Each structure stands twice: as C-alpha cells, then as structure tokens.
What we know:
- The chain is an alpha/beta fold.
- Helix content is 39%, strand content 25%.
- Strands 1-2-3-4-5 form a five-stranded mixed beta sheet, sandwiched between helices.
- Helix 1 (25-39) links the parallel strand 2 (11-20) and strand 3.
- The longest helix is centred in the N-terminal third of the chain and has 15 residues, at 25-39.
- The protein is globular.
- The termini are far apart.
Amino acid sequence: MEIIYxxxxxxxxxxxxxxxxxxxxxxxxxxxxxTMDRYGAKNLIFDFSRxxxxxxxxxxxxxxxxxxxxxxxxxxxxxxxxxxxGLSAGGEDDDGSVGGRVVIxxxxxxxxxxxxxAGIFSLMKYTETKEEAVAYLHRNxxx
Length: 143
C-alpha cells in the first residue's frame, strides 16, 4: 500500500494505492495520523480511486480516522472510551458538524459497495472526484 498526500488549506488528501487489508491497516492508520498531526489537518479526504481491494480492517481505518477527527484528534482508544460512556469530546462547527470532516472520493464500484454496505456513507460524504470533495469541504462551487 502506497499513500500520496496533498494539503489544501486545512484538508489532507490521502490517495491510497493498492490493497487496504489487515496487512496494511496498521501502517496506513499510523501514516495518516502522523501526517494529519504534522500538518494540523482538520479535514481528511480518502481518495480510493486506486484501491484495488478492501476488507474489514480497511473499513476500520476509515472509521477510526472519522472518530479521531470528530473528537479533535484524540486516539482511537480514547474515542472508543468516550463513545462507550456516551460522551463527545468535540464541539460543533457552524454547520452543526462535530470536529473535522471526512470525505471519500473516487471508489470503484466494488469498493463503493463495500463502504455502502458497512454504512460509511451515512457518516461521510461521497464525491466522484477529489475536486468535488475539496469544494464540499471548503463550501465552494465546482467549476
């Protein structure tokens, strides 16, 4: 699994390439978290246009980054503890969302189906292109 990063304002785009499975999940999780911390990313775009396979560990990576942004950058363990106690660590933004936001873009039909069946799109927006994702996060129209 290879990841190419790009920062646009306060948004980190992570373009993943290859298989996001249990073998790659821990490294991907750590790499994305480290990069988000290094650049102070508030939002995250997962670009799955070059992901060829994803299993439940990949879904866990996506959900973990979502939870982390919702709680203002806290670890997965703390997020789980807060959720278990029915608490939230993040404040609301002006649009009513809590913490940062995650957008998924560019999935193949197979990956889109996996994420849809896992209920990911009830939590996160999906766009066809990275440009649409950036525009959504920054509230701009796509030209």
